Every structure is written in C-alpha cells, then in structure tokens.
Amino acid sequence: MYNVNNLTNNDDIAIIDQKAPFTVIEYKRDLSVTPETAMTAYFCNEMNVRKRQVICSLSQSNGITCQAGSMQWSVGNVNATTGIKGVGDLFGKAVRGKVTGESAIKPEYTGNGTLVLEPTYKHIILIDLNDWNGSIVLDDGLFLACDSSVKHKAVMRSNISSAIAGGEGLFNLSLNGTGVCCLECDCPKEELVEIYLENDVLKVDGNFAIAWSSTLDFTVERSGKSLIGSAASGEGLVNVYRGTGKVLLAPIDRRQSANALGKFLSEMAK
Fold it and tell me: Which residue among 16, 39, 184, 231 is least crowded, i.e. fewest CB within 10 A of its CB?
C-alpha cells in the first residue's frame, strides 16, 4: 500500500485533463530556479510555457505503452516489459520504428501501481480512439503513451510524391483499436482546429496537420492545375487530405516550432 502527497494535492499544480488511465498535470509556476534563470522562468510562466506531466493509473488499464525513456518514476506494483512477443514481433517493431522515426521498442508497464512520465514543456493532448472510429494517423514525433490494447502500425503515404515533394517520411505511425493515447504537441488543445471531411478535400500549405483519420488519403500536390498556376498563386505544393474523416490542424508549423523549442531548451540548459 502507498500514498502519494504533494503531487496532485499541491496548490502549485493543476489537473488540466483526465481520461482514464491518464491524468495530465501542469505546474503553475516553476519554483526550481536559480538567480540566473529566474527572469526566464518568470516570462515563461507569463506566456504559458510551463512544465507538464502525465500520471498513469495502471489499475485503470490492462497496461500502458510509453515512448522509450519517458518514465520518471513509479510506485506500487509496477512491472516493466519490452512488449516483445517473439523474434518476428521484434523484427516488425524494429522495421516500424526505423521507417516512422519512433523508438523501435516501446516499454509496456503493467500492475496496479502509479507511473509518472518525465516532465515536458510541450502540451499533452489526450485522444480517445473511440472519437476517431478506432484509428488515427500521427505526424512524426507526437506519440508519448497509450493503452497497451492499442495496436501500432506503420502506414505508407498514398504516393511517393507525398514523401519526396513534401519533405516528409514515407511512413507514419497509426494507432488502432480502443483506448486513450497521449500526444506531445507544440500547441495547446484549445488552439487545435478540427476539420471533418465527408467525401471532400482539405489542402494545407505547410506542416500544420498533427493527426488525421486513417480513412483519408494523404498526398502532396500542386496548388494549381499547372506548374504556372502554382507559381502564380505563390503556394507551390500543398498537403492534400481527401475522403471522409477528421484532421487536426495546429496554428503553427510543427517543424519551425520544434526548432524554436530546441533552441529555447538549449539556452535553459546553459
């Protein structure tokens, strides 16, 4: 038996989202500062740049699968495994990790204790796969954790042009089944735009889509019907999502935001 104090019952920590078995907490202020970092910490707090963590209640799940290296601490009856179910499974996960850019082996935690993930300055988005008809495709680097009942699969783009012309990889990580998944995103859930398509087309100029339904075809196409038309519009190539399903759009380009956050964290570490 165990009892955890000064975590969720700390007046400097707020619970900002909760979907069994995950609870997302946010630190209202960064109190672990030095005189050299106090000014940066103050302005970060004013601009909503705050530490966030995910608390996983294993008693509310048959297991939790996490991105490799994301665990900070656990308490109670918590067992960690690699989730590998044989040589064939290891080979399949290694290939999937290579083509999607995710960790090849994602540890699985079971038991009835509590698992706490590493703090992050990114925003945590909780998604119930039931709201996505049991399947969602993620942009690279978003996956943080999910119910172990959720299946992972590498899905190929609709055509090679979407990888070459769009500057993207050829594969994306797809999560399938029932359960909740945690995403690490550069912008908060409140700013994400949800677009539902019904036999229609969405065209996006840039890497703004963070997730989309697996029922949609994703390609990269010219914005106009001809090269001259595309050049005249100033848009050139656009990401195209076609069919029936949902797309989550961020208000900022993920690649540019990731580079800016990387520079910020490097400065904080100095």
Answer: 39
d(CA 11, CA 255): 35
Closest CA to 220 of 230, 211, 187: 230
- Structural tokens at position 240: 């195209």
Identify the DSSP state of 165: T
Beta bridge partners of 224: none
Round to whole Å and give the CA distance between 254 and 161.
20
Domains identified in the chain and CATH numbers: 13-255 (3.60.160.10)
Identify the residue whose tokens are 């609870």: 23
- Residue pair 188/52 in contact (Cβ under 8 Å)? The answer is no
| Cis amide bond preceding 21, omega within 30 | yes
**Going by DSSP bridges, is the β-strand pair 78-81/108-111 parallel, antiparallel, or unpaired?**
antiparallel
In b/e form, how buried is each residue of 183-202, taking b as 16+ CB within 10 angstroms?
bbbbbebeebeeeebeeeeb
Mean of the pLDDT values across residues 209-215? 95
Spatial distance between the Cα atoms of 205 and 221, rounded to a whole number of angstroms: 10
Tokens of 5: 């104090």
pLDDT in tens, 32-41: 899 999 999 8
Angle at 111 between CA 105 and CA 112, to 5 degrees: 135
